[in-house]
Amino acid sequence: MKIGQIDLGYRPVALAPMEDVTDPSFRLICKEQGADMVYTEFVSADALIRNISATTRKLHIDPAERPTAIQIYGREVEPMVEAARIVEEAGPDILDINFGCPVKKVAGKGAGAGMLRDVPKMLAITRAVVGAVKIPVTVKTRLGWDHDSRIIVELAEMLQDCGIQALTVHGRTRSQMYTGDADWEMIARVKENPRLTIPLIGNGDITTPEKAIEAFDRYGVDGVMVGRASIGAPWVFHDIRKAMHPELQLPDLIIADKFALLRRQISESISRIDEKRGILHIRRHLAASPLFKGIPNFRDTRIAMLQADTWEELDKILSHTENIINGMQL
Question: What is the pTM of this model?
Answer without folding.
Answer: 0.95
